[in-house]
Amino acid sequence: MSDEDDEAEPAVSLGEQTPVEGAPLARVTSRLTWPKEKSEVDRLEGDSVIRTPDGPRELSAVLEEIDETYFQRHQEFERHVRQVVGTGPIPTADE
After folding, report:
1. Cα separation, 63 vs 76, whole angstroms
2. Is the pLDDT of residue 84 over 70?
3. Is the dihedral of CA 55, 58, 59, 64 positive or negative?
């Protein structure tokens, strides 16, 4: 390789960064070990703000709407959360 190859533009333009409020649900669930009781999830991560199609929401508010009290696996937990918050495009911080 030559020095010219190292200084070349990226193959794909990434565009401008758009701010998004809240953390991805997967990031929050990755900080926990499973299985876990809902009350323990709330105690450990309840103040975390997650991204939803309706804008950022505090996880403890979402947990209040879930009837399940015990989550065997993180996939089960995420499924219950998505049933409450829905799925779809996440609005940017300035929308």
Report:
1. 13
2. yes
3. negative
Could you give the CA distance from residue 70 to residue 37 in angstroms, rounded to a whole number? 4
pLDDT at 8: 63
Q: Quick one: which of 63, 64, 76 has its CA closest to 34?
A: 76
Rg (the chain; Cα; Å): 18
Instruction: Please confirm whether the linkage preceding 35 is cis (ω < 30° from 0).
Output: yes
Q: How many CA atoms lie less than 13 Å away from 78 in the CB half-sphere?
A: 14
| Tokens read off for 43 | 């105690």
Could you report the per-residue pLDDT of 8-60, keeping only the tens digit for each?
Answer: 666 666 567 777 788 999 999 999 999 999 999 999 999 999 999 999 999 99
Three-state DSSP at 10 gives coil
